[in-house]
Amino acid sequence: MYVRGTVAGEVEVRTVSTSYGESDLAEVPLRLEGEESEAEAASDQQPEYETTTVTLWNKWTESAEYVEPGMELLVTNAKEEEYQGETRYATTGDSYVVVEPTFLVNVTAIRNWVECPRLYYLNKLSGVPLNYPVVKGTLVHEVFGDLLRGRDLEESIDARVEERGLELGLLGETAEGVAEDVRENAQAIEGWLEQGRLTEDDSEATADDDSTREFSPAESSWRSEQLLISETFGIRGRADAVRRGAPVELKTGKNLKKEPRFKDKVQAACYALMLEEHGGNVDTGTLLYTKNSALDRNEETGDLTPAKDFSMGGGLLKFVVRLRNELAAMEIAGDVPTGYEGSAKCEYCFEQDTCMVVSGRLDQESKAGQIGQPIPADEREYFERFYRAIEEERREVHHEYAKLWEQDAQERADDDRALIDLEFVEKRPLEEGRWELRAKRTSGANSKIREGDFVLASDGHPVRGNSELATIERLDEEVVLTADEPVEVTRLDVYPSELTTDRLLAAMHDALLKGTERRKDVLFGRTDPEFDTVSEIFIDNNAAQNEAVTKAVGARDCALIHGPPGTGKTYTIARAIRAMVERGERVLLSAFTNRAVDNALEALLEQLENHGEIDADRVVRVGSESGVREDMQPYRLERAGDPEDRVETLQNAQVVAATTATCGSRVMKEQAFDAALVDEAAQLTEPGTCAAINLAERFVLVGDHEQLPPVVRAENDLTESLFERLVNCHPDAGVMLDRQYRMNQRIQAFASREFYDGKLRPAEPAVAARTLDDLAGVSRDALPEDLQDPVSFVDVDGDSSQYTDSEEAARIVDLIETYEAAGLERDDIGVIAPFRAQVSEISSHVPDDVTVDTVDRFQGSSQEIIIVSFTATGTLEGPIFEDYRRINVALTRPKRALVLVGDPNALATDPVYSRLLEWANA
Ligand SMILES: Nc1ncnc2c1ncn2[C@@H]1O[C@H](COP(=O)(O)OP(=O)(O)OP(=O)(O)O)[C@@H](O)[C@H]1O
């Protein structure tokens, strides 16, 4: 049986004599997980779960040593015992003990950990840099997958090398040279697969039925790349291949011993564990050392066979779980490994120097020792604070994984995290050995899943069923996906990714350990940013914008442009970049979202075209095909192609535009710029901003900290943007754009007073006087009197539900009809509600061309008329839109009319909303 619960006290470890001799045991007080009783659920009390003792025998006492009260523990195959009238549990010979099972440790992390826990930590901090062995390794893996799917060797090599043209170019490699290297390694694979045909019954095609037929792994009991997620062991990873249910791992190095390397066995054992959890029975693991077949028998001695099998014993599997427990417990406790935990010898380690430098600079205890001076105490404190915050964020990603099995399909769908009840249509093999999968949607349900996303495509359950990582190629009534293996897809789940967290950590590491002293003095407020004098006039009709461009161009360190809604941020950014380009500088244009990058790029291209200053060929957009807007595709940097060509296009670009997430990619990290301009900077975490500014000598941040804050899952230091911190720390480096080009005077008045010290003003009289009458075919006279003013309040009692309000929704449906009758086009109308449930409620009753969404989706856009549904009756438990910054965004989207719908009695209970009522009813 499974026993699962929370450690409820100190663990006692001791040695006892048994009939088998001396044995270790650990007694763990555990508060068992159980069902809440009805009475407990009804009262608000914390349910009282039973506390019992679980005895962990022998080697499992090692795991017991790491556990602390509050950690979660899972024991499989436990036996129940009666002891002095109490039910207790103990491990059996078949048990596994898992510490913090929801902490999902990656298989490669366990492999690094067994090599050296400190190495695991260093890899996590700095990420894997762009280097040839890594790219070559990836290519060999890709070719391996292709061969398993039945693709021709030469075709695969050519295609895969071509796909990585940009990376290879940056590394100074030629396509021919790389192809030759990959071929040497791939021959080992092909030879081995060929041998498999002769000696094993891998193929369904036997000699009898067709002796001339080529071996085709695609038809055999092989599968390439399998994503495995374990809800029991808290492990996840992608096995390179699985042959007749057993894991096969590919290594591009050599190994002249008979046995696989221990760390490689550990990796294969992790996959074996997960395959067994999914119903398999794994006796062997195989490691394929591809370099072996390229070695010269006359020069090398030892076992040159590339494929090495080993038997998968229970002892190894348990050892792997104990390793994983050690890692998970250390992460949960927030400790940093020193290297003493393992037995690796530092003098043989390739990373010894890096390890000593990091230890020295962060003043960390380390087995390798320390070199160099520690960074100042405030920087170390910052490092620790943000390290913790980023790790908390990682735990939130792990919770997203846990929801894959904790929530049922309907709950996932209700949470917008899955598309369920799809009708499988067909699977079609693609030329390159991959598959196209099609399924029909049976409902119009919403979800966070978008075209271009990676998703878990399954035949029913993302973890327990047959499931594959797939890319969404098209998403309308039909879903079209591509995947490595065919799945009869009926459900899609959002794939939780740790990539962002990994990149945040690397960006913070680079900012602190690789950043210049001057940069860090500015970031830590030890020195004020400096500016060169610039006397040129850049913008002659808007003094604040002109000052912003002057500051951006003249900044030696940084400039901060605070841009309230509609104040011409994009216009100012474009003008500043043009000025920098004219001065011969290389500029990075970045923002949190692809949409903002494309908007700014569009504005820049327009300006460049009007002034003919630089060749549009020297502007490059870096991003994925699905991320970049259609009209910006011509500027998108194609990664595939001739290495020299690809790299030339990127290196020659004077302006490179990419999201901050992409700035953390291996390719972008190789680039250097004179200046980085970052839009939407108030929505970025500090490390998120660093990913972009680390690449440039100076930086300009543009944003509005009175609008949406950074999007993070956990509540911690990541919720304040670097932009906001620097605006407060270096007010002289900042400029606020104070003329807005969007809203009627009456609409902007409240936001100006409440959020911008009354400084926001319409840029021109024509903006101030905007009304619906300006729109062709619209007459305000056709509207009821109470809707003729640019701001109106519609009083609705509400239905007292928490996250929806059917009365408000019904009233909004009427309002839309009224506006349509007065001549408004539906796509000029936007509706904003605080909760997704209310968005769905309203959407289901209004025509599709009216945009209905939450504030987050509206940030950065504007509409002729905006209707806000407050969805609050009776009392308010807090700011309805979570945060006043959200209501600021909602109120500043419309140009010509704003209609507020809600219960005034509820609103009047909050000081900000009560001032809002006064203004709306004035
Ligand atoms: N100095 C200016 N002179 C004339 N028009 C301007 C000027 N600055 C901005 N505009 C115009 O004002 C409008 C809003 O500008 P822009 O799109 O740059 O605003 P924004 O601050 O980026 O908006 P948002 O708040 O949505 O991000 C655009 O149509 C732009 O062309």
UniProtKB/TrEMBL annotation:
One of the GO biological process terms: DNA replication
CDD domains: SF1_C_Upf1
Record keyword Mitochondrion present: no
One example GO MF annotation: 4 iron, 4 sulfur cluster binding
Domain DNA replication factor Dna2 N-terminal span(s) in chain numbering: 48-242
UniProt entry tagged with the keyword Cell membrane: no
Signal peptide: none
Residue ranges of every copy of the DNA2/NAM7 helicase helicase domain listed in the record: 542-639, 647-713
Family matches, as Gene3D superfamilies: 3.90.320.10, P-loop containing nucleotide triphosphate hydrolases (3.40.50.300)
One Pfam family in the UniProt entry: AAA_11
Catalytic activity: ATP + H2O = ADP + phosphate + H(+)
Family, as annotated: Belongs to the DNA2/NAM7 helicase family.
Name the UniProt record assigns to this protein: DNA helicase
Organism: Natronorubrum sediminis
